[in-house]
Amino acid sequence: MSGPASYHVIHDEAQAIDDCWNRIGIHGDKSCPLLVEHIHCRNCAVYSAAATRLLDRYALQQDDRARVQAPVDSDLVTRSLLMFRLGEEWLGLTTRSLVEVAPLQPIHSLPHQRSRALLGVANVRGALVACLSLAELLDLEPGGITASGARSQPRMLIVAAKGGAVVVPVDEVDGIHAIDERILANASPSAGKYTRGVLPYKGRSLRWLDEEQLLSAVTRSLS
């Protein structure tokens, strides 16, 4: 993707994905009947499913990667979360704020940087994008090796903030997973910064981030 709602296909197999958002969706002729309900393609399950397939093909080479199955319960409502690790902590962020998962790129520091969270800029397909430390924003310990460290692959998350996309480096990405809304509704309270609650996931605790608060903090860090 080069923006919050456009994918750039970078794998040979990706041609099998129907990029309907570019044909009949928000970047096409807008004839898709689902636009009335969803307003924007990124809110549609078809778009989320395509994002999952692209991310899986990109480089999420995890032997025990879970496959999201279509729900058989017609009453089941899910929300897509991107699961990733910073240091020892696993976090979840709703996919509607995600632009892309990209390979780790060199980060170029800036003179007179505006905040401690601002790491500098990174080159994303020829464009310089502000790079922020999510660990600094969330008051987390610096990244470190975990049990999966030998196989983990650091990534950069490109997220849609007010005024444009920003990049945040992470230590590992697990993938996009559909979480039952009932589980989210029963998330344990958390005193963590910009956190909506704590969820049990794959035998570990996962912090479900409050995207609105987090993106507001990102914007403040750039102003």
TrEMBL record:
One of its GO terms (cellular component) is cytosol. One of its GO terms (biological process) is chemotaxis. It is found in: Cytoplasm. InterPro entries: CheW, CheW-like_dom_sf, CheW-lke_dom. The keyword Cytoplasm applies. Keywords: Cytoplasm. It comes from the Bacteria. Residues 78-220 form the CheW-like domain. This is Chemotaxis protein CheW. It comes from Pseudomonas chlororaphis.
